[in-house]
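Budget justification note: compute hours in this period were largely spent on complex prediction jobs such as the one shown. Inputs:
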Amino acid sequence: MVRLITHNLLACHVKGCDSNNFPLTFSDAEVEIRETEYNAEFLKGFFPKLEWKALVDSARQLGDVSLPETPPIDYDSNEEFLRALHHVLLEIHVQEGSMICPNCKHVYRIQSGIPNMLLAEHEVAGR
Amino acid sequence: MIPTPDLSHLTKEDYKHVYEPAEDTFILLDALEQDADYLKSLNPRLCLEIGSGSGCVLSFLGAVLGSTSALYLGTDINIRAAQATVRTGLQNKVSTSALVTSLYEGLEQRIKHQVDVLVFNPPYVPTLEGEASVAQDGRDIAGAWAGGTDGMAITDQLLKNVGGMLSPRGVFYLVAVKQNDPEGICVRMRRTQGLDGEVILKRRAGGEFLHVLRFRRSE
Ligand SMILES: C[S@@+](CC[C@H](N)C(=O)[O-])C[C@H]1O[C@@H](n2cnc3c(N)ncnc32)[C@H](O)[C@@H]1O
Ligand SMILES: [Zn+2]
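Corresponding output:
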């Protein structure tokens, strides 16, 4: 279950690839929607950890346009906004497909909802 | 008492490849339970377990903190373990997420000073150095225990960056055995990461002397 909340934390880590390496671009994504319980406190608490533009762009790639370009100033009390954020972060699951680095084009596969971020030995940085 | 997560969906066949929860897992659960009030008071939003294996610990953490209160993310080099982590979450109604990766590779850039609760029950058994690297490359059950010289080959790679990952209120739990030199780990973590560490639980089980260490930022 790759959800956008996890995707928002992933960057390419191929050796030497350290700019324009985030967010990874979805390709051939098979999307599944699964409802889950809404928790406003969690959303407000997680919000500061998000890269907003990456989230909005990635949601759009998956066909969801419910998030605004910039978050509302009253983000922590705006329920309509928080509900949309809940859906985008937690209910959209990418089951199969891949994520491609916008810089070096490395392909990270997603299989049965689990991204594989392992690299071959020669691609690994800092070892 | 917080019940141990339901693992009835995992079979003998799964445990040929995925680490079956054992005494080291259970001492970690006991430590987390002992710290339940403290952990809740931190309002953690990002919980990361390295080497989540069966997913037992991550699901337990979800039971301690509330299944929707945080992101419960597990990493493992073993694909079957990552799958088990997700299945165990579903079985216990905690939506755990899993990544196949080594340590936190791929997350490094985005989780700087963001992790509120970090957990690692590492491959800690002292082995020949070569045995640990073969086990790492194998990405199967041997990778669950083979720890190289002093049993610290894998753990040391994580320890280098814990200070950089933890959020200001972040806390890190680590399982270690006597041969890993728990006191020495605490000294090193203070010096290199600026984290205060202490042994919060220890017990003998089978042939092992198990310790749970907890690290936080100095006041
Ligand atoms: C002792 S088991 C613990 C499993 C589970 N957390 C528990 O407590 O029962 C260690 C786990 O770490 C994983 N592991 C070993 N090396 C790793 C690495 N470099 N990166 C991520 N996980 C690793 C193993 O596959 C195994 O699942
Ligand atoms: Zn790249």
